[in-house]
Amino acid sequence: MGNTLEEVLFSNNIFSGCLPEEITLLNGTKVIDLSSNKLIGDLPEGLEYLQQVETLEIANNIFRGNVPETVCSLPNLNNFTFSSNYFTAKDPMCKPNAVQGLFVDDKNNCFPGKNQRLEKVCKAALSRPVNCTAIGCRPSNPGIGSKTPHKPIVRVKTRGSTLAIK
C-alpha cells in the first residue's frame, strides 16, 4: 500500500493519541495532511523513510518535542507546516527560509522568539506527560514500526463502526 497511496488527507477528524510509527510505511505518498486533529506527543521515529512526500501538514495538533532534520531534509519536501503545536526545538534546517524551495510554517509553537505561544501556555501544556508507548501507539522498541508493521496503519472510528487500514 505504501507505494500506491498518493495522498493521505485526515485533516479535521478529531483523531487523538500519538502518531504511530507505521505512518513511515507510506514511503510512496506525496501528500500527508494530519492537520487540525488532537494528535499528541513526539513525532515518530523513521520519518526519513517518507522519501516521496512533497507536502507534510501537521499543524493544529498537540505535538511536542523536537522537529528533526530528517523531516526537513526529505528530498521532495516543498511544504512543511507544523504551526500551532507545542514543539520546543527544531533542527536549523527546519527554520523558515533555511532550505531553498521549502516552505516552512513554524508559528505558534513553544520556540523562543516572535510569533510563538506565550510561555505560560507552553508550560501548562508541556507539564502534562505523554507516553506514546503506554498509550499503545508506539512499540516499546523505537524504530520497529518502520521496519515490521505490527498494527494497522490507521484505525478510524466512526459512529458505530471501525475501519482499519493495513
Write the layout of secondary structure elements.
Layout (H helix, E strand, L loop, with lengths): L6 E3 L6 E3 L12 E3 L4 E4 L13 E3 L4 E6 L1 H4 L6 E3 L4 E5 L12 E3 L13 H8 L5 H4 L18 E5 L2 E5 L1
Parallel strand pairs: 1-3, 2-4, 3-5, 4-6, 5-7, 6-8, 7-9
Antiparallel strand pairs: 10-11
Keywords, please?
Leu-rich_rpt, secreted, Leucine-rich repeat, LRR (right-handed beta-alpha superhelix), globular, 4-stranded parallel beta sheet, 3 helices, 10% helix, LRR_dom_sf, 166 residues, 5-stranded parallel beta sheet, mainly beta
If you had to describe this structure to a student in words, what would you say it looks like?
With 166 residues, the protein is mainly β. The protein has one domain: Ribonuclease Inhibitor (Leucine-rich repeat, LRR (right-handed beta-alpha superhelix), Alpha-Beta Horseshoe). It has helices spanning 69-72, 119-126, 132-135; strands at 7-9, 16-18, 31-33, 38-41, 55-57, 62-67, 79-81, 86-90, 103-105, 154-158, 161-165. Strand 10 (154-158) and strand 11 (161-165) form a beta hairpin. The model is unreliable at 142-166 (pLDDT under 50).
Second rung of CATH, namely the architecture: Alpha-Beta Horseshoe
Q: Residue-averaged pLDDT, rounded?
A: 85
- In CATH's first tier, which class applies? Alpha Beta
Q: Helix/strand-derived class?
A: mainly beta
Tell me briefly what this model is.
The protein is mainly beta. The chain is built from 3 helices and 11 strands. Helix content is 10%, strand content 26%.
